[in-house]
Amino acid sequence: MFAIENIIRNASSEEKEKLTILLVNETMDEYCSMLANSLPHDFYLVTGIANFPQWGTESKPSNIHIVDFMHEIPSRHVDAIIVFNRGAMYERAENASRNLHVPLIVVDFASSITKVPCPLHATLNLPNPEVLYGRSGDACVANSKDVSRSWISQIPCLSVEINYPGRTIQKDQDANFILLDNTLPKQSVEGLGVNVNNGLYTNVIEKASMYLYLWHNKNTMLYDCMRNRIPVIVPKGSQDLGDLASQQLCLVVESPTMFNDPANYEQVLKFDGLPQLVENAYNYVSKFTEEEFGNKWNNLLGHVCNKGFVRN
Predict the structure, then answer these.
(1) Whole-angstrom distance, CA of residue 92 vs CA of residue 180
(2) How far apart are CA 138 and CA 135, in angstroms?
(3) I need a surface site. Which of 7, 36, 95, 196 has the fewest CB within 10 A?
(4) In terms of CATH, what superfamily is 2-165+290-305?
(5) Structure pTM?
């Protein structure tokens, strides 16, 4: 019944004030939370759509709902689907979009260079990477200008830039650990030779005094750290982070294993140039606000959802 109800609803000229949005999540809880906190709509995560956990252990806004199957959505319709990046979850979101006759919005955090989120030094096994250029959905949201420019010549769709501004946290002033992203695959960290058992590391951002960034692409945790004046340490080789280095927003180091020697941790904390890098990063991310984030998303959803739509 969803497809028929969606077609009838999409054909209506009446503006939709409260939307039902299907999220296909892939370790983007913070982004989803900010989206839900910024907008009056209902957001649904359907575990039956993906073979990937749709939510972590963090608490969630009251207008984000987790259900097992589509028929559990009370509104009996969906106005749009949002998926993150162009990997395996995109295929599932696109299938749902076709079956339900609703527009698909793709949020890109990875550029066309890295193509999909990828840990540092990992080897991507993409049988046909050119396919990703066609995974543009009906609208593309790029998290930064560089990401937008890298895809824009390839995508015949509405493309907008909406910057994730980072969330403000309450830091534990007595804790001084190195943050490692808890979404990093364990085998990737082990493959890089990082000794996570030397007592220096945490997965909790509130306890972090610096962030060891082990991804090729940018993610929400990076912006969260910049927003909260947590220094970002980037080993050489991160493909999408060149602009951070050129603008002096992070500290570039030779190897991800440098903190295997605890003495290097103290040396970094004492580095004379670190405070300026931290301030540069904070000023950079402070240009983006939650209000602007919400307004841009509200305008985009209004444009995409308040017009007739039938999937070909």
Answers:
(1) 29
(2) 9
(3) 95
(4) Glycogen Phosphorylase B; (3.40.50.2000)
(5) 0.90
